[in-house]
Amino acid sequence: MRNSINIGIALVASVLLVSCFNNNSPNYQYMPNMYEPVGYETYGDYEIFPDGMAAMLPVDGSIPRGWQPYNYENSTAGLELAKAELKSPIPVTEANLLAGEQLYAIYCAVCHGKTGDGQGILSQREKFLGIPSYADPGRNITEGGIYHVQMYGLNAMGSHASQTNELERWQIGQHVLNLKAALKGEPGLMTQVMDSAQANTLTATENTMTETTGSEQD
User: Fold this and answer.
1) pLDDT, tens digit, for every residue of 190-217?
2) Of 111, 187, 188, 199, which is least packed with CB atoms within 10 Å of its CB?
3) Could you tell me what percent of the chain has a pLDDT over 90?
4) What pTM value is reported for the model?
């Protein structure tokens, strides 16, 4: 009997408590800031912050760690200048080419196609039309131009400067040049580097032999 009374009292108390709940206005907030956070405006003037600033301004003349200035403007003239004179600071190596291939698959192949023929999945689905092949006649594709377009974008292509760093953009450029060579049936970058090294070695050997022969004759 006593248990029944206790259960009845508990049920009545529960009903009373639930009837007092208001979903729009909680009765008690253990952590008010979790419900009503203070929304400070960026760089707003607040007394609780040092010098009254909600965010500290960078020191004059400072730059973000890892950031390098890019001195070519976002214009047709800037693009042509980059094509003509901007050169890659990284060597052509198997590691850089592999990294460029992987990055290209992530950021570029969806539009430009796996082989650089302009037939990526978005082109096939007609999301973007008129994407040219790297082998199209008249296209002046250089390492500097590729880097510039990644920095600023071109036509329907947006900038990729926020997705990739400086090294990654140059690595992508190497892979693009490899794709261009393959589409045209030309040697890839590694073959070009090896041929150039062999040619330089042969030239140096010939010069040495010429100098030796000349000395013997004297």
Assistant:
1) 887 776 666 666 555 556 656 665 555 6
2) 199
3) 48
4) 0.65
Cβ distance 169 to 96 under 8 Å? no
On whether residue 181 sits in a domain, the answer given is yes
Q: Residue 137 sits in which domain range?
A: 76-197
Closest CA to 151 of 61, 55, 71, 43: 71
Average pLDDT along the chain: 81
Residues 6 or more apart in contact with residue 171 via CB below 8 angstroms: 90, 96, 97, 99, 100, 103
Tell me how far apart the alpha carbons of residues 214 and 208 are, in angstroms, rounded to a whole number.
10
The residue among 143, 146, 152 whose CA lies nearest residue 189 is 143
Question: pLDDT per residue over 129-182, tens digit each?
Answer: 889 999 998 889 999 999 999 999 999 899 999 999 999 999 999 999 999 999
More confident residue, 124 or 216: 124
Number of domains in the chain: 1
Q: Is residue 112 part of a domain?
A: yes
Give the pLDDT score at 63.
82
